[in-house]
Amino acid sequence: MSSNNQTMKEDFILLGLSNDPKTKIALFVIFTFIYITSLAENAVLIVLTQIINELLTPMYMFICNLSLLDITFTSVTVPKMLTGLLLEHNYISDIGCFTQLYFFHFLGSSECFLLSIMGYDRYVAICHPLRYTQIMSRKACIQLTSSCWITGFLYSMVHTIFTSSLSFCGSREVNHFFCDMPPLLKLSCSDTTNNVIVILGLGGLAAGASFLLTLISYFYIMSAILQICSTEGRRKTFSTCASHLTIVLIFYGTIIIMYLRPQSSYSMEHDKMLSVFYNVITPMLNPMIYSMRNKDVKCALKKLCKRKLKY
After folding, report:
1. φ/ψ (deg, to 5) at 263
2. Where does 128-267 have alpha helices with state H?
3. Of these four, 159, 189, 196, 219, which has the most CB atoms within 10 Å of its CB?
4. 89: closest CA among 29, 188, 7, 32?
5. Helix axis angle, 138-164 relative to 94-127, nearest 10°?
C-alpha cells in the first residue's frame, strides 16, 4: 500500500478542465462525440485518398498525411482527458507525461511543416500548371512528406530533452488536461530561462519559417489569380486553395496566441480553452473543410458508397 502511495506521489496529476462533477460529465459526452467524429472523418478521408483513382494526386497525398497526423495528434491527448473527466484524480507518470509532451509537439510541428508544403503544392499547381506533374512527382512528394515527419521528430526531441531535465520538487499538479511545456515550466523549481529561450527561439524559428514559406507561396498565388481576366476564372482558381488557406489561418492563429506571446499576457485558463480548440475541435474541422466544398472528395465518397452497396 505504501509503495502505491509513493508511486502516486511521484506521478503528475492533470487537473483538467473542471472540478464540477456535472460539468465533467457534460464535457465527457461532448468531447467523446467530437473525438469519435474526428476519427471517423479522417479515417474516411484516408481511405478515399488511397482507393479512389481520381484522388491519387500529390494534393490528396498531402491531405492523407494531414488526416493521419490529425488522428494521431488528437489521440495523444484526448483519451487521457476523457479518462480524467471520469476520475477524481487523473494521474500520469513521469514517463507518460514526457511521452505525451514529445508526441504532442512532434505531431503538431509535423503538421505545421506539412501545411507549408501544401501551400507550395498549391503554388506549383496554379503558377506552373504545365510542369506540375514533373515538379510534384511521386518521389518528390514522398521526400517532402518524409522531411515533415523527420523535422518534427527532431524539433520535439529538443523540447522534450530540455523539459525532462528540469527538477520538480514541489507540487506536481499540472493545471491542464495534458502535459505541455508552459504548465510544466510553472511547476519546476529549476531555472527555466533556457527553456523559455528554446520555446520562443526554436518554436518561433520553426513556425515562422513555415509561415513565411506559406506567405510567399500565397503571394505568388494571388499574383497569378489577379492576372486572370475573367471573374469566374479567378473564382475557380482561388477555390482550389481556399480550403488549405482556411486551415492555415486557423492553425497559425492558434499557435501564435498560445506560444508566441509575451509571458506577461499568459493565462492558463485561456490556454486550456485554446488547447481544446487546437487538440479536439480542429482535427474534426480539417476533413470537413476539405470535403464540404470539394467536388472531387464528394464524388469519391459517392463512389465508395456505391461500392459498399454492390457488396
Report:
1. -60, -30
2. 132-135, 138-164, 181-187, 193-226, 231-259
3. 159
4. 7
5. 150
Joined together, the cell numbers standing for residue 39 give 476519427
CATH code of 226's domain: 1.20.1070.10
- In this structure, what C-alpha cell is assigned to residue 221? 498565388
Q: How high is the pLDDT of residue 264?
A: 56
Q: Spell out the residues 6+ positions from residue 178 whose beta carbon is closer than 8 angstroms to its own.
A: 14, 76, 77, 80, 81, 100, 104, 275, 279
Q: Which residue has the cell 503538431?
A: 108
Neighbours of 39 (CB within 10 A): 17
The 3-class SS string of 230-242 reads CHHHHHHHHHHHH
DSSP class of residue 227 equals: T
Confidence grade of residue 261 (pLDDT, cut at 50, 70, 90): low
Residues 142 and 145: their CA atoms lie apart, in Å, by 5
pLDDT in tens, 55-102: 888 988 999 999 999 999 999 999 999 999 998 888 999 999 999 999
Hey, which residues does 173 pair with through a beta bridge? 13
The beta-carbon contacts of 51-55 under 8 Å, at least 24 apart in sequence, are 51/304, 52/300, 52/303, 52/304, 54/296, 54/299, 54/300, 55/296, 55/297, 55/300
pLDDT at 311: 54
CA distance 66 to 204: 22
Domain that holds residue 75: 2-310
pTM of the shown model: 0.87
pLDDT value of position 309: 57
Residue whose entry in the numeric block shows the C-alpha cell 493545471? 175
The CA-atom distances, in angstroms, between 246 and each of 115, 169, 200, 288, 290 are 11, 43, 25, 11, 9
